[in-house]
Fold this sequence. Notes:
Blueprint: E1 10-14, E2 17-20, E3 22-25, H1 28-32, H2 41-53, E4 58-60, H3 68-78, E5 85-90, H4 99-113, E6 118-123, H5 132-146, E7 149-155, H6 159-167, E8 172-178, H7 189-197, E9 200-204, H8 228-240, H9 243-260, H10 264-273, E10 278-284, H11 293-297, H12 306-316, H13 343-347, E11 356-357, E12 365-367, H14 373-377, E13 382-385, E14 388-394, E15 397-398, E16 402-403, H15 409-426, E17 434-441, H16 447-458, E18 464-469, E19 479-486
Parallel strand pairs: 3-4, 3-10, 4-5, 5-6, 6-7, 7-8, 8-9, 9-10, 17-18
Antiparallel strand pairs: 1-2, 11-12, 12-13, 13-14, 14-19, 15-16, 17-19
Amino acid sequence: MADRPLRPPRIELGPGLEVPRVLTGLWQVADMERDGQPLDPDAAGKALGEYVDAGFDGFDMADHYGSAEILVGRYLARARPGQATACTKWCPLPGPMTADVVREGVQQRLERLGLPRIDLLQFHWWQYRHPGYVDAMLELDRLRREGRIGHLGVTNFDTDHLRLLIKHGIPVVANQVAFSLLDRRPAGRMTEVCRAHGVKLLAYGVLAGGFLSDRWVDRPEPTDIPDWSKSKYKRFIDTVGGWAVVQRILAAAKTVAIKHGVSVANVAARWVLEQDAVGTVIIGARLGEREHRGDNLALFGFALDDADNARLTEAQSLLRAIPGDCGDEYRKPPFLTASGDLSHHLAGLPRVFQARAGITRPERSTVDSGSRWEPIAGYARAVRAGHRILVSGTTATHGESIMVCPGDAEGQTVYVLDKIGAAIEALGGELEDVVRTRIYFRDAKCAEAVARVHGRYFGAVRPANTLVEIGGLVGGYEVEIEAEAEVGP
C-alpha cells in the first residue's frame, strides 16, 4: 500500500518560483458558470483555502476560465502574502502586439487577481504566421524586468516556436502542454529542447478529463458527455484508436494500481510526473463540488518500477499517435478542443500581409512585408502572376530590421518559413501549393538542422529543393529562403 505524505513535494520552476508538483487547475470554473451564474466567491474561497491548507497552493487559471482569476484574487486578498502561487494565462487574438496592447492585457490580469505582480504569466498564440508573438514576448519580458511579472511561460507552444523564443533571448521557464498515457507528443523533441534549456513542462490533460480513472474501467463507451472537459478528451480518445484501445490502457493501469494500493488516476498522473522535463501535473478541481486532494497525495507514496512501465508500454502499443506537435490541436485538423472544429475561428483571424495590385501590371498582385529594403531595392516580398506565386529571398527579419535568433540557423528557418507562408496566404495560396524552395545558408554545419525544419513544414508536400552554402549573407543572417508556388484554378 502507498503511504500518503502529509504534503506534496515541491519544485522550483525558476528562481523564487516554487510550486507543488500538482498544480490545481481551475478550467472547470468556466464549465460550472456556463449558465451565466458566477460561482459564489465565499464558497469558492473556502474551497481554495482547503487546497492551500493541504499544500496544493499553486493555482493555474487563464483569462477565459470564467471568474477563476477573480475568485483567486479575492482569496489572496484575505490570505497571508505568499501563501499561494498564481499562475495565469493571457490568450489574445493575433494582431499587432504593441506595448499598449500587451500592457493592457497584463494589467487586466493584475486587476482581476488584485496583485502587484503575477507569479507566472503564460502566453498563448493562435497562428505562428503572425509574428506578433515575438513582439508580445519581448514586451512581457520588459514587464518582467519591471517587476510586474515574476516569470514567463507559454502554453501550447510547439517545439520549434518554443525553441525560437529561447534562442531569441526570451527567458521562458515553462510550457504548458497536454501530456498523458494517451498523448505522448511531448516525450520527443519537446523534451529534448526543454532539457537543453532548463524549461519545465506543466502537463495538463493527465487524466484525460477524468476518463483515466477507476470510474471508467470496464465501462461502456459514453454517449452523453456531461461537460466541456470530457467532450474535449473524448475527441482525443477517438483519435488515438477508440474506446477499446483506451480500455486496454485502463486495464493495465488498474493492475498497476492494485499492486501499489493506489487509484488508476494516481497511476496515470504518476506516469506523467516521471517523464523527463515534466515539472508539474495540473489536476482540475470543481470548487465546492468534488475534490481529490487526498487521492492526489497518494501520487507521492509510490513510484512505477520497470515491470509497471513495461505493462503500460505494452498497453500503449495499439495507440495511434496524435498528429503533429504539442498544441497543434488548436491550430490544425484534427481539432481536439472542447469547442471542436476551430477552422472557422482561424479563418477569421487577420492576415499578416495584404495583397495589392501591381503598379504597372494591375493583373499581378504583390505583397510587402515591411522590410526597409523592399522600397530601396524596388522589389516585393511576393508576387502572384496568374497561378504562380514567387516569394523573394526571405530572411528572419522581424519588422523593419530586427534579426530573429541571431547566430541560430534553425530558429531563423522556422521564422522564415512562417513568413513565407504568410506571404503566400495573402496571395491566395498555401504552403501545400509550394513546388520549389531554394535555401542559402552560411555554414554547411547547419545544413541538417535547416533541412529538418524544412521537412517538418514540407514533408507531406515534397517540393523541389536546393540547398546552397554561400560565403556570407547580407546583414549577417544564417539562412535565406525563396519559394515558388502553383495555385490551382
